[in-house]
Amino acid sequence: MKKVFIFLLSLLFCCGVVEAQEKSELQKRAEAVDPGKNIASARSLYIHAFNDYYNKGQIHQGVECAVKAATLYYKENFWKEAFDLLRRADETINAGKQSAAEKAASHYLCTKERVQMYIKLRKSESAKDQLNILESLANQANDESVKNDLLYTKAIYYYTFGMNAQGNAVFKEMADKLTASKNYDKVDEVYQTLIANGRKSNNANLVAQSYSNYIAWKDSTDAMKHADEINALKKQIADNEAAISEKDSSLTTRQVIIIGLCVLAAALAAALIIGAIVLLRFILLTRKQKKVIKLANESNALKAKFISNISAQLEPTLQKLDSRVPEVKALLDFSSHVQTLSELENTVYDPATLEDTPIHPFCEGLMEQIRDKVKSNVTLTVNAQKMSAMIHKEYVSHILLHLLNNAAEYTPEGGTICLEFKKRGPHTHQFLVSDTGAGIPEEKREDVFKPFLEIHDLTTGDGLGLPICKQMALKMNGDLDIDPQFTRGTRFILDLHV
Question: What DSSP character marks residue 388?
């Protein structure tokens, strides 16, 4: 029941309060991610977008992103993280320089999300308390679209907890508003969806009440629609009679009208023919494009397999060469990296095997492996709790060692390299590798995780290290990204979700 009304709220009425400002790149990236495939990445980007909007003073757009991130949290049952994020969003609203009405509209978004969360948790009293706060905020915002949205939210609450009488009253108020503005089709669609949902949930009482209300409304609106149509026809007849009366004295004028109508009819017929031709071409073009896309996908799969096969076939020959020669070693490493990347891409949806690992000694051991590779006076720091976590030890070791080796290479004398571990929730962990090097330019940050974008001198590296690390992170139901808020060098964040 709740999902149906949320769907109606977002698609039929579009009553949400929307900022007229253009979306930031971070928000566009978040919206481009499919939560069904990578919910952690979408959530992380929305949180980054929230922080970015707050720093720019665009509070309302930031709150919208925070609400979307909270929704993605509790979709995975991370309720505490969702409530904490909404609390943080409320704090940013209070600290902002908006007017009282604007702050109320922003607080409304956070409170509405809490109502929906309590409804999901089946906590009727908590949801009711938040609904009272929501009503107060709607009055303070003094915005008609917010007040309409409040009606829909009330309806969700009442029907979810079996308060059909109150739900009917709210729906009647909604229907009366839409009927007054002659939005008959929208009201009809609301009732039809309500009846259909009652049938799906086997709620005979809800179906009977909804159908009864629908019939009563239908009868009244049919009468109003017929009256409107009759009045419109009467007006049209009166206008036509007046026009005919004015032009009746001139036969030439009548002929001009007839000729004009004939020309208009011919033009409409021609337009219909042209439209049919354009539609037919569009259908044919769409079919052709589908075939091209299918062929392209098959071609890409064959290319990936072909590249992997070439790499595997070259390896026995390369093994016979002297691996002490830098060029030969570079070829061997490149061949191995290509095979690894191909295998990871082909098995990205296969589950990774986890093992319980003591985190502090694990991190200390990794840092010890790069100690002799850093420049003089570089400080190495490990900040990890003395606890255990379920991780894929091989993949995590590979990723962190690659990041630490890069940090050792690019951190100047007197710099700092830090490896941190943070527990973000019951099932969420983070490893962070930061350094005080020159950093990665913002315009190149997205490309460092994409393979084969540039031609490399293989003796200086093949550019596949970070793409392989990214694929390993995705296979562990996590993600690897660069922290855009870190400005004293570079910080990589490895998110893991158990």
Answer: E
Please list the residues that pair with 431 across neighbouring strands. 421, 494
Q: Over the stretch 159-215, which tens digit does the pLDDT of each residue have?
A: 778 887 887 787 777 777 777 767 777 677 667 766 765 675 565 666 676 677 778
Give the C-alpha separation, 106 to 88, whole Å.
Answer: 13
> How far is Cα 367 from Cα 384, in angstroms, rounded to an integer?
12
- Evaluate whether 169 touches 154 at the Cβ level (below 8 Å): no
> How confident is the model over 400-436, as pLDDT tens digits?
999 999 999 889 999 999 999 998 888 889 999 999 9
Query: Across the strands, what pairs with 430?
Result: 422, 495
- Measured CA to CA, the distance from residue 185 to residue 183 in angstroms comes to 6
Is residue 229 helix, strand or coil? helix
Residue type, 105: A
Residues 6+ apart with CB under 8 A from 474: 38, 348
User: CA–CA separation, 124 vs 102, rounded Å?
Assistant: 28
The β-bridge partners of 300 are none
Residue 421 has phi, psi (to 5 degrees) of -130, 130
